[in-house]
Amino acid sequence: MKDLAIIVFAKAPVPGQAKTRLAEALGADGAAALAERMLLHAVAQAAAAGADTLELCVTPDGAVHPAFVELGRVHSTMAFSGQGAGDLGERMARALERALRSHRTALLMGTDAPALDAAVLRQAAAALAAHDAVFVPALDGGYALVGLARPAPALFAGMTWSTPQVMQHTRERAAGAGLRIAELKPVADIDVPQDLVHLPPGWLPSLGTRPSAPSRGATALP
Fold first, then answer.
1. Which among 31, 137, 160, 191 counts the fewest CB atoms within 10 Å?
2. Residue 22 domain-assigned (yes or no)
């Protein structure tokens, strides 16, 4: 049995479909370009973390996008899979359970938190030596990474996602299931215009776009 799998959950960076809440500031093309930049960064960091298996799990299933093609070329041993049907929790639970059939531990991360670098991923993997689960909380109340040393369906089933209470509800579920969890330093998800301040320096100019001011009604939470 292998030690560690890292699964990157990603949506095809198609204009009008990816990071739509950022389109107010960046336009549909700019939002998709940023989504692609974050995708490439996330996979590069996951690859550098030194897992036995790297998997890109995409939606929609079977999506063929130039970014996916390039990632397959650069990371020739990376596995590709589809997320399948169901809500976010069902899809995450299924991917983690599949990985844990052949690996002692598994990490699952999104592509929206540039601060999830290889060092953080290695720290999360190390935490699983003494814990059943590890999380990197997000500043918006959710989490950007979950790692498991054994399947834990109770963490995912019937959860109401995209709310500021996701991480707190997850802690309560973990306690109820008797799971030992570790939490690392929170990071910022890049979801809405106000989050753009958390991007690494130089990222926005490299996209060839300049963010406009968000409207008064914009909010940092889903």
1. 160
2. yes
